[in-house]
Every structure is written in C-alpha cells, then in structure tokens.
C-alpha cells in the first residue's frame, strides 16, 4: 500500500510538471505571436519598473534628437520628468523639439540643453561632452541614436558610401561613447543605450553597408559590456528595432554619397514610433541589456536567426528577393514582409 501511495504521488508530481511545462510553452508561443518585443522586454512591460518613476530627474543625452526615434524619445522622456540634452546637426530642429517638450511637460527652459553635434566631426566630441556634463553636473543616460540608413544594391554602391556609413554609424557612436564612459566609470553608475537594428543581428538586401555598421556596433558594445563587469551599475544596452515609422528611410544613403533617395515608399505598415520608444524606455528602466522590438513577422525572424539559422536563411532569401523587387519597382522595400503596398 505504501509503495502504491508513493507511486501515485510521483505520478501526480510528474503530471503537474507536465501541465505546467505545457502551459508555459503555450504562453511563450502566444507571446511570440502577439507580442512586439522579446520575452524579457515583454515581461518588463507587464511586471517591471515604470519609466515615469525610474527615469524621473535623470539627465539623458540623446543624439539624433531632431527627428524620428530621437525626437520621440525627447517627448516621452520629457513627460517622464527627465532633464534632456538634445543633439543633432540641425540646431533649428532641435529648438523646435525643445519647445514641444516644454509645452507637453513640466520641464522648464533650463531643464533642456540644445547641443548641436556632428557625429562625423570627432575632433569636437571632447568639447561637446564636457559642455554636456558641465550643464547638469553629470550624465545618467547616453542614448546613441544618431545615424543614417541605406537603400542601394552592393553592385551599384560606391565605396565612399560604405566609408561614410561606418564613420557615422559606428565610429561616430564609439567616439561619443568613449568621451562619456570615463565620466560614468568615475561615478560608477550610468547607462549607455545604443540604437542598433534588426539588421545588426541578421543581414538584409539593400543595406549591406548599414547592416555592417550595425553589426560592428553589436560587436563593440557586447565586448564593452564584458569589460565593465567591475561596474555592475553601468548598463550597456543595445536596441534592435525592426521597421519603424521615422525619417531614417527618407535620409538613407543611396549608391552615391550625394544622391537622395527617389522615393521612400509607404511607411504606414511599420511600427509607430511612439510604441517603439515606449518599449525602449521600459527596457532602460529595467536594465534590459538587449531589446528586440518589432512587429511580426520580424520578431519571428529574431528568434529564427537565434535558434534555427538554416530555416532563417531560407525565409530571408525568399523575402529578400521580394524586397529587391519592391525597391526596383519604387515601393518601400520593407513592404515585402507585409501586405501589398501602393506607390507613393
């Protein structure tokens, strides 16, 4: 009888574990289907710290703050009560963003510094960083958001374009980071958040140079994070968005340095900028080291590339061909992954 009783208990435990495992897998599968961020970031949205409480009063330096994700970051951080340093090349646009931040939040004029910055002018970065630090006494968060994308085929693209992409997206970001990092290590606290891309994890046609620059950022900051193990309160975080509604496509490099993109195509099918930025701020507030932010099918691609690369290659090659066809037809290249798009 005792043996039978123990056997029944063991069966009950095994059955409970099986049910729990099945339920866990179902929840994960549903999250994969319906979520627009990786599981860690999704969980942070549900049960983590709120940005408006964790980021209030912090000093945040945003590069590329004059449009797109950088501009939206300024607006949402202002509502969180963060003090801001806004940088980009266009000072008039930065002043516009500053005025909007003040109108939409409790911040005052002295809470926002407009600091024009050219990522390519690396000789100016030391002076700009000193100005940023002196304004508020310290920098809590550096968000490396400045950069440009690319829309051109490799066979048609000048090497000058590749050089410009690497100097702007990679070396410019590294230069600013190296100016701010000693300040953070001295204080033994801070966050360096860098906007990478889905193509920083997996390549995509029409973006060979852009993808290379984002792969370089991934390698640099992953390595830097391991160098800072003695500074547990310094967060090194990379953000990998899929397609987002922003100006990055409009300003993309083409096959020649000074040749503008003919048409950016319809952007309505992409993730709203406000949603992407909200997820970024949740990740920063909760110390997420790498954020995957994307609607389907892109989020599925992240996991496919991580766990089933052979299958991922098959899907990428199939959709990549369509992406090139869309580009040549004057459509938005990313619409290959969505429903049919109309020419703009």
Automatic annotation (TrEMBL):
Family: Belongs to the short-chain dehydrogenases/reductases (SDR) family.
Keyword Membrane: yes
Residue ranges of the TM segments: 12-35
CDD domains the record matches: 11beta-HSD1_like_SDR_c
Domain of life: Eukaryota
Keywords: Membrane, Oxidoreductase, Transmembrane, Transmembrane helix
Annotated InterPro entries: NAD(P)-bd_dom_sf (IPR036291), Sc_DH/Rdtase_CS (IPR020904), SDR_fam (IPR002347), SDR_family_member_7 (IPR053011)
Protein name: Dehydrogenase/reductase (SDR family) member 7
One Pfam family matching this protein: adh_short
Molecular function, one GO term: oxidoreductase activity
Gene3D superfamilies, alphabetized: NAD(P)-binding Rossmann-like Domain
């Amino acid at each position: 009888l005792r043996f039978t009783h123990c056997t029944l208990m063991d069966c009950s435990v095994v059955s409970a574990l099986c049910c729990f495992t099945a339920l866990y897998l179902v929840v994960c599968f549903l999250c994969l289907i319906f979520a627009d961020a990786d599981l860690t970031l999704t969980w942070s949205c549900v049960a983590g710290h709120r940005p408006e409480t964790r980021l209030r009063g912090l000093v945040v330096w945003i590069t590329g703050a004059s449009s797109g994700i950088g501009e939206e970051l300024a607006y949402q951080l202002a509502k969180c009560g963060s003090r801001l340093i806004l940088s980009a090349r266009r000072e008039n646009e930065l002043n516009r963003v500053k005025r909007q931040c003040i109108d939409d939040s409790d911040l005052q004029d002295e809470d926002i510094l407009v600091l024009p910055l050219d990522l390519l002018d690396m000789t100016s970065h030391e002076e700009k960083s000193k100005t940023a630090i002196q304004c508020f006494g310290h920098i809590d968060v550096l968000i490396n958001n400045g950069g440009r994308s690319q829309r051109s085929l490799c066979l048609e693209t000048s090497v000058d374009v590749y050089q410009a992409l690497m100097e702007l997206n990679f070396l410019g970001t590294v230069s600013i980071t190296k100016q701010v990092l000693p300040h953070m290590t001295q204080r033994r606290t801070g966050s360096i958040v860098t906007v990478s891309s889905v193509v920083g994890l997996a390549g995509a046609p029409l973006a060979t140079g852009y993808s290379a620059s984002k792969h370089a950022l991934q390698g640099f900051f992953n390595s830097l994070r391991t160098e800072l193990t003695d500074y547990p309160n310094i967060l090194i975080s990379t953000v990998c968005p899929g397609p987002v509604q922003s100006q990055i496509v409009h300003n993309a490099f083409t096959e020649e340095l000074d040749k503008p993109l003919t048409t950016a195509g319809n952007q309505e099918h992409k993730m709203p900028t406000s949603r992407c930025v909200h997820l970024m701020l949740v990740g920063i507030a909760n110390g997420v080291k790498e954020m995957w932010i994307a609607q389907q099918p892109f989020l599925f691609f992240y996991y496919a590339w991580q766990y089933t690369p052979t299958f991922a290659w098959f899907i990428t090659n199939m959709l990549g061909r369509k992406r090139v066809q869309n580009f040549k037809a004057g459509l938005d290249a990313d619409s290959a992954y969505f429903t049919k798009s109309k020419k703009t």
